[in-house]
Amino acid sequence: MPDQSHRRNLEQVALATLAVGRVLMQCGARGQVVRTGCALVARGLGATQIDTRAGYSSIEVTVRDGDASVTRMTSVAAIGVNHRLDQAVRRLARGAADRTPAAVVADLEQLQAATPRHPPWLVAVAVGLACAAFGKLIGVDWPAFPAVAVAAGIGQYLRHQLLHRGVNVFVMAVVVAFVAAALGVLGARAMGSATAYTAMIASILLLVPGVPALNAQSDIIEGDPTLGSARAVWVAMLLIFVVAGVVIAQALTGATP
Do 173 and 241 meet the contact criterion of CB atoms below 8 Å apart? Predict the structure, then answer.
């Protein structure tokens, strides 16, 4: 029978492992990356065995050492994409053997607070230019280029503001798709473009969920069909709402292929 101090220490290991896995999930990491990160932390802190179950909105870990075992589960907040924090947490997981469970949790909290983010206006400018560049690849003419850049940039800034205020992600997708598509086609017309409809499509490319779609495929291929299927359904639902926003903009502006 394991003593109470051993069990309490194992519980701290489980909680630290769970915290690392949760942050990796929220950064948009693949299921395999989450399991690897959890295993590095748990074994680095002294556990001899770990089992991890990552769902779309929750994560569960079971850590064992000898006859003692502890299982803990927590919810996962809205999943986004934050590669800088993701890489920092991976480095923390690899160095867990040199820390205590409390130190791992403290370092994790510091990383979440201190990892820098680009200012929203800079992201909006970069996204606008990226969508305009993709627009050129799909046939947008030069008069429509600045219209797409401005429309997509405004759409990205609006997306940031809506998500920051806790608006449902699918409601956000409809609103942003409508605004960006409408601004794109109207701006292209004002600039005398002959590719207004293509400009409308290019203006909403910022909403394409590339990372979640790739993660869904990777999770299924790597043997985690439950998580992969959940992510695939989320991607499909988001695209449906994006299309709804574009259709509304098309109906109101009279844009045709």
Answer: yes
